[in-house]
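Reviewers of the previous submission asked for a worked example of the structure-prediction workflow described in the proposal, so we include one complete record here. The input consisted solely of the amino acid sequence. No template or homolog information was supplied to the procedure at any stage.
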Amino acid sequence: MRHNINKFLYTSFVACMIIVGLFFSSCDKTEEDLTTVKLSVFGPSPALRGGELKFIGSNLDKVTSVIISPNIEVSTFVSKTATEIVLTIPQAAVPGVVKLKTPQGDIETKTPLTFSEPISISTVAPTTVKAGDKFTINGDYLNLIAQVIFAEGVTVDSANFISQSRYKIEVTVPAEAKTGKVIVSNGQEIPVMVYTATEVQVTLPVITSIAPNPVKPGANLTLTGTDFQLVKYLIFPDNLKVETFTLNGAKTEITAVVPATAKEGKVKLVAFSGVEISSTDLQLIGPAITSVSPNPVKNGTTITVKGTHLDLATTASFGGVEGVILSQSATQVELSVPLTAKAGTIVLGTHSGKTAESAVVNYIAPTISSFAPMALMAGGDITITGTDLDLVRKVKFVGGLSVDVTPVSATSFTVTVPPACVGTAAITLETTNGTLVTSANQLVVEAANKPVITNIPSSVKPGAKMLIQGTKLNLVEAIYFQNNVKAVLYGVRTETSIEVYVPETAKKGSVTLKLVAFNGDEVISQVFTISGTDPVVDASYVYFNFDGKNSWWGDKGAIENNSELSLDGSSYFRVNHDMNPWWTGFFWRNGKNDLKTDGVTVNNWAVKVDVNVLADITGNMKLRLKGSDGDFWAVIPGLKNKGGWYTITVLLTSFIIDGGSTVLPNVTNIDGDFGMAYTGAGEHVNMCIDNVRFEKITGASGAPKFKLVGF
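From that input alone, the workflow returned the following structure tokens.
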């Protein structure tokens, strides 16, 4: 039986050198004629009829045909370029010189082309094999073979043959072998390569079943089938590679642990050959909730969830508000109930994407049993008695006036009635989750017999005139600012208003002022802002100043230098755009460029930013510090317009890893992206930003400090 042969006959280096010396050249050797057809070498010789013959030289693309004895003209080539011609040798060819026909004349080889007896394959056995089997090739001149090559280049060298003779070769099928035709090669530089007539089938592992299905992540999964000794590793859904598994003696079962983070889908066995064999779809067991207690539950306390497979839970959501898993087992999970959680279900999430949802959970609300006194003068104190009052965060009085509170007792607390409060109405309590509780009785509030402040500006600059509005302001003898700096310059004063100039020495930031009446009564104002920024302690720690330490990229915003807006006459970053919902990048760099962190520690340092909000308020924003420890973010709550520049302070302990709860461990490892972005719901933001810097926390500044959480 004869087989198709893909023939590349070898000609040794020494023979090539002899042939080169004998070949005819149509050009003078001393000429460098770029248009003359020149033949340098051809081969192989001896060659194999039906194999390929190669000519190497220059300008060979001008060759029109090749004449091979006995006068066989070949004008169809396997390939033809200026430097190489490859053609298939006709079966009728006989030994003799070869002639290349060109427009410049014929080029004839000095050395004749000769032919060798062909290497041949007659049979192979078996035709279906698997790794480790003995594979036999029968044929002729197989003693010349240096390599047996399975599909996709998996090679067995002659040194590893089981046996070799002129008529037979025996080899062990490699673990990497794949189905396809097998090649025998004499291994020369221009090799003779002979293919089997048909493909040799290489057996692969077969999966017949997987169990248990569904299976619990972290538990054992057993795959049943055949030829599992051929398996190199497994791939679980979500491309999770598992290289550790056990194999039974019969090679029919593989047992492996299902990765905790695996998803549902097909499990794949990867053979040593690289071929993947897929199972049926793997289903995963998820948690199930059977009960929650107590229900109703009090915000800020612990709730117990019972059920099955609860050890799989990785997250807990209370109506979209993230809770904290305090402890867990397969049958029980204890969760910290968020202060802001409202009536709804609890949803437990897992790595696999499986979820479990509880029945509706309700929340305990405070009760008001009494308050005393039931009638008083504005500015006086009342005591509210009841249950679960530690949930209260705001008390609302007549006229919509309210007071923020944080009671330390669940049964009673005392609150001061706002001085401007006058009238009769019920008291309303607002809790941590927004629940409103209204008293059954009404509180009667009479006007205070002392100065009352009803309105002051939210922000004022040092040296500016400040208008204080209220009642009985004619009783005011003096005004002191927070650091007991007495006002000395006034404008118009009436019973309902006072114009006072803010002393240049008044403390900047979020402050209050004090009115002192002629009779010695003192009235403290609500908080307002004396606009101003904290001084830059060390300019080398400023990593965005927009005067050289600029942004490399961002979505919106640009550097400006408007004297009417500039903090100190230098450039600043201005955003005056409609924001994309949830994400708009402002300014970014990376690679630790101009980011000095020498001596910066997480517990004792903060990021300070000077801002000037020109619109009423902004949405939330985020600062980012990314490095080898992870991607850390700190949320800046919406900023208010305070009538000018002021400094915000963000503690480095507020930077939380993206999507987790880990606090930034080491500032010196920040070597990735750092900058600032908008993350609100989408609105128009108009603000200026300058002097983003690291600064050691000293407690001397009046700038607000945010203890922020991640997202």
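Confidence is low (pLDDT under 50) at residues 1-31, 699-711. We consider this example representative of the routine output the project will generate in years two and three.
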